[in-house]
Design goal:
Largest sheet: none
Helix content: 55-70%
Radius of gyration: 18 Å
Shape: globular
Strand content: under 5%
Number of helices: 9
Structural class: mainly alpha
Length: about 220
């Protein structure tokens, strides 16, 4: 389910096509937020970042509440399979927010680094294909909040820090790629991927802890 945000990105996908992927797809597709004044304002505040191909955590407040709340509800209902699918789908959002190719606007990177002639057709989004190794062995996941509302804000805070870390890596990764130092680029990318994995572990751990607490 970690690939559901890509699989179901086309909102015009027919019901039959969606059911070939999942018998109950609409439970796990990221919902549109309510058309309240608050969310209209959040969309306005994040519109420029989205146009720059970045993933601002502020835009995912509603999705965080949706996926965490449904994971907790599924666990309390004795349905761990659905809970893991909700968490898996949200893990894609976490990964996108921390991915250097999304955390730093490519246009800004191009403005900071002179592109060598042989890289004129290089798409900065291809940084996402470095396949950097992930290893969080020994990491102790954190509970991000004792109640669902606090946990949502805890996830948001972690995502903001994650986006900053991913953004810091973008320029040195591109510099390493332009210099032919692909191993160094993968090492730097790995820092971001490991951070994303730790946030995913925190999200999972928080869902299970909330499910065991008194509703």
């Amino acid at each position: 389910s970690s690939w559901y945000p890509d699989m179901f990105a086309d909102r015009s996908l027919s019901a039959a096509a969606k059911r070939k992927i999942d018998p109950e797809p609409d439970r796990f597709i990221e919902p549109e937020p309510p058309r309240t004044a608050l969310y209209r304002r959040l969309w306005q505040l994040t519109a420029e970042a989205v146009r720059e191909n970045t993933a601002p955590p502020l835009r995912y407040i509603y999705a965080t509440e949706y996926y965490l709340g449904n994971a907790v509800a599924s666990l309390r209902a004795g349905d761990p399979r659905s809970a893991i699918k909700f968490c898996g789908t949200f893990s894609h959002i976490i990964a996108d927010i921390g991915e250097p190719a999304h955390a730093a606007p490519p246009r800004w990177v191009d403005a900071l680094i002179r592109r060598p002639p042989r890289y004129q057709s290089f798409c900065l989004h291809s940084m996402e294909g470095l396949r950097a190794p992930v290893n969080i062995r020994g990491y102790r996941p954190r509970v991000l909040g004792a109640t669902l509302p606090r946990a949502v804000m805890g996830v948001y805070a972690r995502l903001e820090a994650l986006r900053a870390l991913g953004g810091y890596q973008a320029v040195p990764i591109v510099q390493a790629l332009y210099a032919g130092r692909r191993r160094e680029a993968r090492r730097l990318s790995s820092l971001a991927q490991n951070a994303s994995a730790r946030v995913t572990a925190d999200f999972l751990h928080t869902a299970f802890r909330l499910a065991r607490s008194t509703p």
